[in-house]
Amino acid sequence: MKVIVAENASELGKQAFNLLAKAVSKGAKTLGLATGSSPVELYQEMVTSQLDFSQMTSVNLDEYVGLSPENPQSYHYFMNQHLFQYKPFKRSYLPDGQAKDIQAECGRYNQILAENPVDLQVLGIGQNGHIAFNEPGTPFDSVTHEVALTESTIKANARFFDSIDEVPKSAICMGIANIMAAKEIVLLAKGESKAKAIKAMVEGPVTTDVPASVLQKHPNVTVIADQAAANLLK
């Protein structure tokens, strides 16, 4: 596991973009993408770059159950706003949060991932060490599944909705085994609130109590953290 400490969020985005551009130059065909605040600067770099993604495939980590792609809080909407409207891919896959049969949708998504092996996966990390919506306790051999969102996640997301009752209660999410199948992983972390999780992931034991700690077992992981997120590392 390689750790890069970036001076600030802008530098973090540039460092992440350099790794992504290198993967593309080596023939990467499929990028695994994340939502949330962590990859925003990376997507800004991608948008202003000369890179062409029109022959590439993207697969996203997760999507809320019940939200339409047009809902401003959906991850479909997020990806369009930050990346796809400027830099379209040949194919872009996200789970269908409005699927009538969620279990069947999870199976369909696992099949998409099997047919489109991820060359480089972008990740963020939660304050409790979760990756995607894989909360503490998620088995390391999990594949795409429906996740009941924890009370703390629902409360954290309430700020984006008119009321807490509107916050989705579950999401469809790639499992930890799906994430670990990527050839290369780049995990991004910003802010002091992520410092404990980064320390536990990099220096702690590998345990389902800190889902991100499993990345210690991956052969090609780069962690890019700003100074605040890295300040507890030895």
UniProtKB/TrEMBL annotation:
Q: Which residues form the active site?
A: 62, 128, 130, 135
**Lineage top rank: taxon:** Bacteria
Q: Is-annotated flag, keyword Zinc?
A: no
Q: Per UniProt, which keywords does this protein have?
A: Carbohydrate metabolism, Hydrolase
Q: Cross-referenced Gene3D superfamilies, in alphabetical order?
A: 3.40.50.1360
Q: What is its EC number?
A: 3.5.99.6
**Which CDD domains does this chain map to?**
GlcN6P_deaminase
Annotated protein name in UniProt? Glucosamine-6-phosphate deaminase
Organism, by scientific name, is Lactobacillus nasalidis
